[in-house]
Structure formats: C-alpha cells, structure tokens
Design a protein that fits this description.
By secondary structure, the protein is of the alpha/beta class. It contains 42 helices and 13 strands. Helix 18 crosses helix 19.
Length: 971
C-alpha cells in the first residue's frame, strides 16, 4: 500500500480508433501496475456524453506524466493523432514535463517519424502483432513501462507541478478500489470549473446517508484534480472542537503568523482572511452535519473551491447540493469482487465468472448498494477466503454481527455500518422523539418507497407520539426535517412518499428489544391494514402496487408473531386477492390460506367473514384449474351464508353464482343451472331487475345456455344483460363494453362473424376511451376482434390486432400472464391458417410454457396449448412429436372434467385415429369405444358437441371393426 503522500502516475494513451482492440489487451496487461497504485490510466473512451471532448483530451494530455504512443499505419494516417496529440506529447517530452514511449502495434514504416529518436517497445522494435504469442509481446511492453516508471521521480508532496500540491493534508491514501462515481465527479468538476469563470465560487456539498461514500468521493476528487490547485486542505467538521483543531493545523500548513498567537478566534479569522484573498485552493469540510457550526469558519468571499460532505439534505443558500445515491447493482458487485480480491483492480465485471457475478449481484442487492457495507463484506471475504456463497449464507444467519464488524485497515471510515447508522439514529432521538418513532415504523415496512398514506390512515394505531403527526402537518414536517438532516430518510413531496435504506431498517430492527420489536410489528400491521386501497378494481392497480410490498412485509410479521387480528386478516386477504387478480397465483395462495386460518380461529368456522375467505380462496383455485377444491370451498361458503345471512341475501347469491361457475367447469350443467337461476332470482328481488349484479347473473346463465347449444335462449339473456348495463350505466360505460363482448363471444361460437364484428368494434372504442389502450378489457377486445378477422380470411388484419394485444398485455401484465398465453395461442392459430407452421409452433410453445408455469401443468389452458401444438405437429406429419402431447392433454381433461366429458371425445378421436394409422390397433380400439360411450350418454342432450359424436357413430364403429379384423390378421 502506498503511503498517504503518494499518487499514481497518470498515463495517457494516444491511439487510432482502429487499434482499440489492442489497447484493451494492453490495459489488461497493465492491471497489476494499477493494482499496485503505480499508474492511473486515461483514454478518450472515458469521456462522458455531452462533455467537450477536445477540451477534455487536451486537459489529460497536459497533466499526464507518461504518454504512450500506440503506433500503426492508422495512427500515422490520422491527422489528429499525428499532427496534434503526438506533436504536443513530444513537446512535453522535450520540456521534461512527461515521458513519451512509442509502442509498435502493427508493422509500418516508422523510420524518420518525429518519435524515431526515442526508444520504442517491444524489445527489438518488433511490432506486437508480429510476435508468435501476443501475451509474450504485451508482457515485454509492460516490463519496459515498469522500468521507465521506476526511473521517474517519485510522486510525493514535494514533487513538481504534475504531482500533489506542496500544501496538502488529505488524510487518506488514494483508494484503488474507488469506482462507480464517474458521473458525480464529472458533475462536481464541471460545476466548480464553471464557477471559476466568475469572481466568486459557490460551495458544493456532497450529501447522503452515512456509509454512502461521501468522504471517499471527496478524497477521490482531491487526488484526481489536484493539478487544478496550489493548495488542498482538509478539515474535520463533525464538531466545534474538530473544526477548531483542523483550522489550527491549516494555519500551521499555511505558515500564518497568527498560528503562534494562541487564541483560537484570531487563528480562525486568519485562515478565513487567507481563503478570501487567495485563489487556486480547495478546502474540504468533512462530516459537516451540523450546518450551524460552519458560518464562523467560512470565508465571506470564496475565491477558491469549497467542498462539504454532509448528511444534511436542506442546505439553503449555504452550498449547491449533490445527492449521492447508492451504487448500482453492477457497480456494487464489481466493488465487492475487487475488494475481496476475487477480481484484480481495473478488471471489468464481465471478466469474473458467471457464478461470481450472479452471487455478487445478489449480495449487493441484500446490502442495498451501500459502499461501506460492500467494503466490509469484501474485507471479510478477502481475509477469510470463504467464498461468495458461504458469505451470503453466513450474512443471512448472522446479519447483526456482520454489520457490526469493520475490517478495513484504512482510517477514512473506521466505524462499521451498524455503528455509523446507530450514531445517526441516536442523534435523531436527541432532537425529536416523534421523528425517531417515525423511522422505527418505516423500519418495519418494505425498504425504499413508503407511502405517507400509511402514516396518515394508520395514525390511530401508532401510539401517542406518532398519532399527532398524521393530522398536524407542522409537526410532521418538523419530524421529516430532523430525519432529512441525518439522511436517514428522504421524501418525495410530489408522490407523497418516504424512502428509507434497507440497512437503516436492518440496524434499527436489530437494536430493538424483543418486547418493542413485537409492538412495532403489530403497529405496522395495523397501519398497513388501515391504508389498504378502498377498491380492488383495475383503476386502483397503481395504488395497490405501491401498497403491496408493505403488505407482504407485514405478512412476514404476522407469521412470525402469530398475529390473530382483523388487521392481519385484512392485510393477508387484500394482498392475496390483488395477487390473484394479477394472475400471481403462487404468491397469492399462502396469503389467502393464512387469512382463512386466522378468520376460522378469530371468528369461528361458521362466521360470514370466514365465508368471505373461503369464497376468495375458491376463486383462486378455480383459476388454477383446481375445480374440485374450489367446489368444496364454495359449498362451505354457501352453507355459512345461507345459515348466517339467509337464503335471500346478496352474498348468498354471490356464492350461488360462483358455485355454479365451478359446476359449469366440471360439466355439471344440471347442477349449475338451478344455482344460477337461484342467484338471479335473489338479485332481482333484493337488488332489482336492473342492477349490475343482476346483469352479471344473466350473462353467466347465458354462457351456460350457449355451451348447451341453447343459442336462442343465450342470446336473449345476453341482450337483456346488455340492455340493463346500457340503461343504468350508460352506453359508454366499461361494463356495457363487457356486455357487448359477451354477446359477441356467443356469435363467435356460432361462427357468425358478421354480427360479432360491430359489437367488438364498439366495445373496443368504449374501452380505449374509458379505460385506455393498456387495460385488460381493451386487450381482450383486440384479441377477439382479431379472431373475427382471422376467420374471415383477413390474416394480415388479424395479425396486426394480435400484435397490438400482445404488446399491451406484456407491458401491462407481463410476459408470463395467462392472458398473454391466450393471445399467443390465437396468434399461432392465425399463423397456422397462413401456412407459417414454424411461427405457429414457436408461439404455441411460448403459450404452453406460460400456462404450465403460471397455472400449473394440469390447467385447461395447458391442455388447450398442448392440443394446439399437437395439431401443428400433425399438420407437419410429425406424429411421434404429437402423440405425447395429445396423451398429456387427454389426461389433464380427464382429471379435471371426468372420463366422459363431451369435449374429451374429440381428443379420443384424434388420438385413436393416430394409433390406427400407426397400426396400434390394441391401443386405438378402447379409445374409440369410449367415444361411443360418451355419445350414448350425451345422445339425448342438447350439448353442442353431441352432433359431432352422432355424425361419427357409423365411422367409429367401422374403424373399430377394422381394428379387430387387422388384429386377427396380425395374430
């Protein structure tokens, strides 16, 4: 490690753009010199967007102590490289301001060039690309550069103008692991240099949470831009005593006569006077958290550059504020790998193994990108050599211990993460007890964005200190002011949200006594419950997305503390129901199951509240294709509601309605119809014949009828439901659009595309106007309208609508949503009609993956996707690929619908014929016989699939006889 007075030698690469690949290889071979702190390199690839590149290049060309000319034909042909950069480099070499080394990259006639009198590399003037092994050539070049560096004067505080200023008291060495702040340094430099054009400069303040890296950024700025200053000074500003002591040291460094006066006021005034009368100085006031201490120490007229590091966010006119964010995941992971010596300094992230990169990214996310925490983690990894996976496991088990440790040998930040954040919190406690409790509440919510609404609506449940903050804006702002002064919390007034770093939360929770910990978990649950959005419709999805992370955090506390309360049920049920509406079924189920268990314990197994939990969980199971479980729960809910609320209550009607839906899914049409008729009668009686829920019952009864082939009755009910919606809601209401779509679907089933098209077009216009282009109802309309075009021979128009629907679905719901899968299936069918089998296969595979992942391998949508993909293979003559898909689809339908469901007849027919054609008569015959059984059972019914079975009776019997005859021949 270099001593505090040493800085690396700045290296400048002068090269042609065509030689950039060779430059990258050279940089790799120079990485050890970087790690040893001997060099710091720069090239024009580091210029930030928007920067004046000519000015930036000229600046580094003037300040570099070592200039490497990378010689090739392209270099010599470049007017800029040859005529400007090389010319100035050689001038500085002749003036002994820099050392120039030509490096021959590729063969070229260089004799007689202006640099020909200089010693070139590699050895023997053999160009790098002419060597048998490039690594050997680069190693030779690096060895020559190392020898040249050793002959250069050592960069100490007494060196020339290209080294550190003669007056310099930066307390830390140059940090070789510094990274990820290039934009901030460039911004800081640009703002200070912009101010330099005026008579006076504006102080700049680096602000942020403790451990965010403010001090290291200030140190890096001093080292990186030391050439701009004749004097660089550092003052510890955390207290009046430290400021006074630092100014006494500065007076000594500046050799001010007043340093011997022995009076602090005189000495401080002398330093202020010197700063007011001199230029080209940089003064860094580190840890200037108490801004009220600063005025007596600051010059009235600032002619140099004044830089503060502070946790305070409100600076007023004192300084221009530059907020320091946490490191990005990739920068944080890179810092961790380099600090742990798992990756050499200056080696890019991509050079690490994929496993190390992924693990480092996960650790960085857990540590919230806080540089101090990453430095601590890297130090532990370096010293123990335990490996990233072991560290992550140990951190999760012993988090408090790890955050308490500080293993760095550097003194720029000797305190651990836990100590740093705890000191900040104690500072808050001393100034505002309500602010401290507000932060404690945030510690038990999800990290980052916390809606202020949780505090306002949850105030009655948060204790005597926090309750007034919800209604008294003045007191609330006072608390926020203290928290912002410590950077423990930030505020977004436009979004009405607060933000707290995840490690602040961790440290606060870890220092909490067991009893207090339980109290705050209970408070958080009650507050989040009170702040739950009022409605679960799609217009509230943004509000739910903001609320959901905190509900999920509270779900953890409910489980840990075994909370039995109405608030706990609300949090679990509402979060679970929202996840269900977004098709996040796997996440929703444990929440809804837990809500049901608490309700059963809290209210009893026969309470209406328990019935509501049963009802919601049943809805989830139905969408997962778990119809038998859904039916059982709906029947329980119905029994409770009939007993507790009465047989004519609207909630009883709700249970009847949804139980009928499950019976319909299970093809229990004879059970479904009376349930729907009962629900309809209750709603007409209790809510009115023109109520929206009455229209809902009419629509579902209509769907049952058109599934039974009763198209006339179905159409009458759909039209009645549509009329109700138009009358009570209006012709342009989204629910009216639902009625239009329902009627159009009936026409689609009847292949009546002429009637369906205008209904869907009208519904689409309503949804686009009222709900927007990215609403699920709009997407469904687009998809259905595309089906109309597809079946009307307008494949191009169908494709255009499908693409719109798919794009909107992926943006709104994600690429893994069941609606996305349904659109993909329909797009595939259109591609198949257009003769594009490859595209159809690709789309159907995507749909199958989504269905299996989101709904499970036994869901009807999975079966539909398997059937569709099998049809593609059959069309392509790939019976071997089609057969296992057909078998799987048949098994799913049998499991869900039963062995004799009418729709299974089609699968049996397709699979039976495949076996027959393959000569597998023993396998074909029982499948075909099952079709006869289904047909006999359904013969007297009016099911729409029955006609297919009737029509095929004679053909099926004939094929069965053929199977028998051929089996006898084979025998």
């Amino acid at each position: 490690m270099l001593s505090p007075g040493h800085v690396p030698i700045e290296v400048f690469y002068c090269y042609a753009r065509e030689d950039e690949p060779l430059l990258r290889e050279l940089e790799k071979h120079l990485s050890l010199l970087h790690r040893q702190g001997l060099i710091s390199s720069w090239s024009d690839r580091q210029i930030l967007p928007g920067a004046d590149w000519t000015k930036t290049i000229d600046h580094h060309l003037e300040t570099a102590s070592l200039i490497l000319l990378l010689i090739s034909a392209d270099f010599l042909a470049s007017d800029y490289c040859y005529g400007i950069e090389m010319a100035r480099a050689l001038q500085r070499h002749e003036a002994k301001e820099a050392l120039v080394i030509p490096i021959l990259l590729r063969p070229v006639d260089w004799q007689g060039a202006p640099f020909a009198h200089l010693q070139v590399l590699p050895s023997g003037a053999i160009p790098i690309t002419s060597w048998t092994l490039l690594d050997t050539a680069f190693t030779d070049v690096v060895a020559g550069i190392r020898r040249s560096i050793e002959e250069l004067p050592l960069l100490t505080s007494s060196a020339s103008r290209n080294t550190l200023p003669s007056i310099w008291n930066i307390p830390s060495p140059h940090n070789i692991f510094f990274l990820g702040r290039e934009d901030l340094l460039a911004r800081l430099y640009a703002q200070l240099q912009a101010d330099q054009r005026t008579a006076l400069t504006q102080p700049q303040a680096i602000c942020g949470l403790g451990g965010i890296g403010k001090t290291r950024i200030a140190v890096e700025y001093a080292y990186r831009y030391h050439q701009e200053y004749q004097v660089v000074l550092w003052a510890h500003a955390e207290s009046l005593e430290s400021l006074t002591a630092s100014y006494s040291e500065i007076a000594t460094l500046l050799k001010l006569p007043e340093r011997q006066a022995g009076e602090q006021e005189v000495m401080i005034q002398a330093v202020r006077s010197w700063l007011q009368t001199h230029h080209q100085w940089l003064l860094i006031l580190d840890n200037a958290d108490d801004l009220d201490l600063l005025p007596p120490f600051l010059p009235i007229a600032i002619k140099g550059h004044l830089l503060l590091t502070t946790r305070a966010q409100a600076l007023g006119q004192l300084a221009n504020r530059i907020e320091i964010p946490t490191l990005s995941l990739e920068d944080g992971a890179l810092l961790l790998l380099r600090r742990a010596a798992l990756l050499p300094p200056d080696t890019p992230f991509e050079r690490a193994s994929l496993e190390d990169r992924q693990r480092a990214l996960h650790i960085t996310e857990e540590l919230g990108g806080l540089p101090l925490a990453l430095d601590q983690a890297g130090a532990y990894l370096e010293e123990t050599g335990c490996g990233l996976d072991t560290y992550q496991h140990l951190y999760q088990q012993h988090r408090g211990v790890f955050l308490q440790e500080r293993r760095s040998r550097l003194q720029d930040h000797p305190a651990s993460v836990a100590t740093t954040l705890t000191l900040s919190f104690q500072w808050v406690e001393q100034r505002n007890a309500a602010a401290a409790e507000l932060l404690q509440l945030c510690a038990y919510l999800a990290p980052n964005v916390v809606p202020e609404n949780i505090l306002r609506k949850g105030a009655p449940h948060l204790g005597s200190l926090l309750k007034p903050l919800a209604t008294d804006l003045f007191q609330f702002n006072q608390a926020i002011e203290v928290l912002r002064a410590s950077s423990l919390l930030s505020r977004n007034p436009r979004a009405s949200t607060l933000s707290v770093h995840r490690l602040v939360q961790v440290v606060l929770r870890d220092r909490m006594e067991t009893a207090a910990d339980g109290i705050w978990k209970q408070r958080a649950v009650r507050a989040v419950s009170a702040a739950c959005p009022e409605t679960q419709d799609m217009t509230q999805w943004d509000a739910y997305e903001q609320w959901l992370p905190h509900a999920l955090m509270c779900a953890t506390w409910i489980k840990q503390e075994q909370v039995i309360s109405h608030a706990a049920v609300c949090v679990l049920h509402e979060a679970g129901y929202y996840l269900y509406t977004r098709a996040r079924y796997t996440e929703a189920e444990p929440l809804l199951v837990h809500a049901l268990a608490i309700n059963e314990q809290l209210l009893g197994p026969d309470h209406p509240g328990t019935a509501q939990s049963l009802h919601t969980l049943a809805l989830l199971y139905r969408f997962q294709g778990r119809y038998a479980e859904a039916e059982s729960l709906h029947r329980r809910a119905l029994t409770i509601r009939e007993q507790q609320l009465g047989t004519h209550h609207p909630e009883t009607a709700q249970s009847l309605h949804h139980l009928a839906h499950v019976c319909y899914n299970l093809t229990k049409d004879t059970e479904a119809e009376p349930l729907l008729l009962r629900a309809l009668a209750i709603r007409e009686q209790q809510l009115g014949v023109n109520h929206a829920e009455t229209a809902q019952s009419l629509s579902n009864l209509a769907f049952l009828y058109h599934n039974q082939g009763k198209y006339t009755e179905a159409e009458r009910l759909h039209r009645r439901a549509l009329t109700i919606r138009e009358q009570i809601l209006g012709a342009s209401h989204p629910d009216t659009a639902v009625g239009l779509c329902n009627l159009a679907v009936l026409y689609l089933l009847q292949r009546n595309y002429t009637e369906a098209k205008p209904l869907l077009a009208r519904a689409l216009r309503i949804n686009e106007q009222q709900l927007g282009a990215n609403h699920p109802d709009t997407i469904t309309c687009l998809d259905n309208l595309a089906i109309v075009y597809m079946n009307s021979g307008k494949g191009a128009e169908a494709e255009s609508l499908h693409v719109r629907a798919l794009t909107c679905a992926e943006q709104l719901l994600g690429k893994g949503h069941p609606l996305t899968a349904q659109i993909l299936n329909n797009m595939a069918n259109n591609a198949l009609l257009q003769g594009d089998d490859a595209k159809a296969e690709s789309l159907m595979r995507r749909a199958l993956i989504i269905a299996e992942q989101q709904l499970g391998p036994n869901h009807p949508l999975s079966a539909q996707s398997l059937d569709n993909l099998a049809m593609v293979y059959i069309k392509q003559g790939k019976d071997a690929e089609a057969e296992p898909l057909l078998v799987r689809a048949l098994a799913i339908k049998e499991h869900i619908l039963g062995a004799n469901h009418p729709t299974i007849a089609l699968n049996l027919s397709i699979l039976g014929i495949r076996y027959f054609r393959q000569g597998k008569y023993a396998q074909a015959e029982p499948l075909l016989r099952r079709i006869l059984t289904i047909g006999e059972q359904q013969y007297s019914s009016k099911h729409p699939h029955t006609w297919m079975i009737r029509k095929g009776f004679i053909g099926i019997l004939f094929v069965i006889q053929l199977c028998r005859w051929r089996r006898k021949l084979d025998d």
